[in-house]
């Protein structure tokens, strides 16, 4: 079977940029690649032959042992603020194979993550372990099922290598699919290490790729800035509405396209608490659940700084344009967040007191350590029993206010319930369920647990009987749940 039977249709527009933005880089060869999991639905949507990907040739391509026809592999350069400190970065363990063009003309990056050393590896081995790659597969596909913009996972292959981290783990490579891998950190790299012309080159490329309408405006670069602010406002609001915590919101982990990317120490919150942190390396809580909007604004300010030379020839005017755009973030974010939370409570129209109603419930959930997802699920199903918060007088007072508010809606109870089911997931990737799936796959080579979990997570708003067991909370433990970067 030849490469062309797989139906990858590669273009390589990124390599037309100045070569300061990338290095030509083939993936490292691996000794014994085997397909661990393949995303058939994603392959089908891309127009890629999933059966062909399961063959030896397909697995060789997914492992980097074979370069597919039309592919020009590169490692991309970027910089970034990591926990507030600026540093030079780049694809230290990833290779971009190229951009796949679908039958509909859509363009998607196809990247191998964990594919070996590059000039940006900074002393690392460039490899990835199976557990973290499967975690990214689970969480990215869960976010996709929840309707949240995200990079996606096409496949994970094991490499036949042993990877040394805090313990010895099997090696693996993830095939990541993204609208692009252009990051805030890519612009920081251009602003810090290249020329004005190259910064403009990157900005024009980004507009051509994601925001072509910008060229019809008076100031294309201001339009670009405002659109990225709008996209990120929407993304962060959606994260918070489902209790998602990214874990490492460095500027190199914020895309210009508005997609979620890089699922290292990410997790979903159980008990509602804005201070929730799962990442083992976030000892100060910089990227806690409730801090995510503020960090997004900070990251976007760094993006705005990179565009100042392009916004106006007059530096003072350019700075004012950038500042004014960034100042809009909080209002845009708040509107998107409150609007989404209003829907979670079954509210179609807008009333002045809605915000107070939302925050009063959240405060009660925090007070009684109530599970975030299941509280909204139970409100959706009108199942107000067997949970501590529902027995409390202050909740009952809030519940009466909510019902009074619902009575002012012009929609029927059936329409309200339907709305709530469409925005309140019945299931999320509970941390204990994710760990259960990873342990079965990594330790026992049993992927059935993982595949069952993925099936349930693919339709989180269905409220089916099979989802019931996945709504159960983890057993109490004195040891806090911790997640790790996997690098």
Automatic annotation (TrEMBL):
<dbReference type="GO" id="GO:0000287">
    <property type="term" value="F:magnesium ion binding"/>
</dbReference>
<feature type="binding site">
    <location>
        <position position="90"/>
    </location>
    <ligand>
        <name>ATP</name>
    </ligand>
</feature>
<comment type="function">
    <text>Nucleotidyltransferase involved in the post-translational modification of proteins. It can catalyze the addition of adenosine monophosphate (AMP) or uridine monophosphate (UMP) to a protein, resulting in modifications known as AMPylation and UMPylation.</text>
</comment>
<feature type="binding site">
    <location>
        <position position="93"/>
    </location>
    <ligand>
        <name>ATP</name>
    </ligand>
</feature>
<keyword id="KW-0548">Nucleotidyltransferase</keyword>
<feature type="binding site">
    <location>
        <position position="125"/>
    </location>
    <ligand>
        <name>ATP</name>
    </ligand>
</feature>
<feature type="binding site">
    <location>
        <position position="92"/>
    </location>
    <ligand>
        <name>ATP</name>
    </ligand>
</feature>
<feature type="binding site">
    <location>
        <position position="176"/>
    </location>
    <ligand>
        <name>ATP</name>
    </ligand>
</feature>
<keyword id="KW-0460">Magnesium</keyword>
<feature type="binding site">
    <location>
        <position position="183"/>
    </location>
    <ligand>
        <name>ATP</name>
    </ligand>
</feature>
<keyword id="KW-0067">ATP-binding</keyword>
<dbReference type="GO" id="GO:0030145">
    <property type="term" value="F:manganese ion binding"/>
</dbReference>
<dbReference type="GO" id="GO:0005524">
    <property type="term" value="F:ATP binding"/>
</dbReference>
<keyword id="KW-0464">Manganese</keyword>
<comment type="similarity">
    <text>Belongs to the SELO family.</text>
</comment>
<dbReference type="GO" id="GO:0070733">
    <property type="term" value="F:AMPylase activity"/>
</dbReference>
<protein>
    <recommendedName>
        <fullName>Protein nucleotidyltransferase YdiU</fullName>
        <ecNumber>2.7.7.-</ecNumber>
        <ecNumber>2.7.7.108</ecNumber>
    </recommendedName>
</protein>
<keyword id="KW-0808">Transferase</keyword>
<feature type="binding site">
    <location>
        <position position="262"/>
    </location>
    <ligand>
        <name>Mg(2+)</name>
    </ligand>
</feature>
<feature type="binding site">
    <location>
        <position position="253"/>
    </location>
    <ligand>
        <name>Mg(2+)</name>
    </ligand>
</feature>
<dbReference type="InterPro" id="IPR003846">
    <property type="entry name" value="SelO"/>
</dbReference>
<keyword id="KW-0479">Metal-binding</keyword>
<dbReference type="Pfam" id="PF02696">
    <property type="entry name" value="SelO"/>
</dbReference>
<feature type="active site" description="Proton acceptor">
    <location>
        <position position="252"/>
    </location>
</feature>
<feature type="binding site">
    <location>
        <position position="262"/>
    </location>
    <ligand>
        <name>ATP</name>
    </ligand>
</feature>
<feature type="binding site">
    <location>
        <position position="126"/>
    </location>
    <ligand>
        <name>ATP</name>
    </ligand>
</feature>
<feature type="binding site">
    <location>
        <position position="113"/>
    </location>
    <ligand>
        <name>ATP</name>
    </ligand>
</feature>
<keyword id="KW-0547">Nucleotide-binding</keyword>
